[in-house]
Specification:
The protein is α+β, with helices and mostly antiparallel strands. The chain has helices at 2-14, 21-28, 32-48, 52-73, 103-113, 199-211, 242-246, and strands at residues 74-76, 89-95, 117-121, 142-146, 150-154, 157-165, 170-178, 181-189, 217-222, 240-241, 248-250, 264-268, 272-278, 290-296. A six-stranded mixed β-sheet has the order 4-5-3-2-14-13. It has a six-stranded mixed β-sheet with strand order 6-7-8-9-12-10. It has a two-stranded antiparallel sheet with strand order 1-11. A hairpin with a 3-residue loop joins strand 4 and strand 5 (150-154). Helix 1 (2-14) packs antiparallel against helix 3 and helix 3 (32-48) packs antiparallel against helix 4 (52-73). It is globular, with a radius of gyration of 21 Å. The relative contact order is 0.14.
Length: 298
């Protein structure tokens, strides 16, 4: 039963993926690394029963699933050429786990990266009473809070703010002037419940992307949706995934310290040139931050 179930999951991952609600929960719950673990357990059970042919088959399947995960997760973008140009900007996107590991650790990480703009989700405690707001310690930033514990900061100026969606999933739009350039940033925090289909939220998000004014655009946050999701297919003609464009290494962002799911993303349009994208390991949250260095193009 375990082996047959894994085969069905592999078939869904290779075909319809998370396109349809009836299958999406299975797809989200069965990344290749999970299939490898299940097949390894299956091989062990058959080994105890001395069914050696089945043991070898399941063990081989586990190796194939592990290789699949490594191949799908490893990104080797070309390294940046030459010295960093003048005018390079830094962005930081991060799920802060509502400060479970302490706000001092969060502040230390932010200060170490010194971003020019940053967006955070789960950036406030879930239950009252609230204490002093931790981001008051960040000097030199224009700040704006949004529904559901979102926070946006920039060394420039926030010209406009719009709450696109609120509830279990949240989308907020920020229009910013930074070093003379006007940018639009869409911050996303999608409900990670496995049985919730992502389609309705992506419909709202796609409409918001279509409505932004011409110019540089960043779309970032905790999507709770894998990088190879069906819903990102239509983006790839007009947006680039920052880690695919400038990252090197494994793409997993959750859960630390052994992140194997790529669910935190930053996408940019053709007015943004990504120089590098790094996913630092940190103990300040169960999510890895997404740190991008970029230029604003003409």
């Amino acid at each position: 039963m375990l082996a047959a179930g894994t085969a069905v999951c592999a078939l869904l991952q290779l075909t319809v993926r998370d396109r349809w609600p009836v299958f999406s929960m299975v797809v989200y719950a069965s990344p290749p690394v999970a299939m490898a673990v299940v097949l390894l357990a299956t091989s062990f059970i058959w080994g105890l029963r001395k069914a050696w042919r089945h043991t070898i088959a399941a063990g081989g399947g586990a190796l194939v699933a592990a290789a699949w995960w490594l191949a799908a997760s490893m990104v080797l973008a070309p390294p940046p050429e030459g010295p960093a140009p003048r005018g390079l900007l830094r962005s930081l996107g991060w799920n802060l786990e509502r400060g479970e590991e302490g706000w001092d650790a969060v502040l230390a990480e932010i200060r170490a990266h010194d971003p020019d703009l940053a967006w955070f989700v789960e950036a406030a405690e879930e239950q009252p009473p609230p204490g002093p707001k931790w981001h008051g310690e960040l000097a030199g930033y224009d700040k704006r809070e949004a529904a559901g514990g979102m926070l946006f900061i920039t060394k420039g100026r926030i010209r406009e703010f719009r709450q696109v969606l609120k509830g279990d999933s949240r989308i907020a739009e920020f229009r910013v002037t930074l070093r003379g350039a006007d940018l639009t940033v869409l911050v996303v925090d999608i409900d990670g419940t496995s049985y919730r289909h992502r389609g309705p939220v992506f419909e709202v998000l796609d409409a918001a992307i279509a409505e932004v004014p011409p110019g540089p655009l960043l779309v970032g946050g905790d999507f709770n949706t894998p990088r190879d999701s069906f819903f990102f297919d239509e983006w790839r003609g007009r947006l680039k995934h920052s880690f695919e464009a400038g990252g090197r290494g494994m793409d997993g962002t959750w859960p630390t310290p052994l992140p194997f799911l790529s669910i935190d993303h930053c996408w940019v349009n053709d007015r943004i040139r990504v120089r590098s994208c790094v996913l630092p390991m940190t103990s300040a949250s169960d999510h890895r931050p997404v740190f991008v260095e970029f230029e604003v193009g003409e």
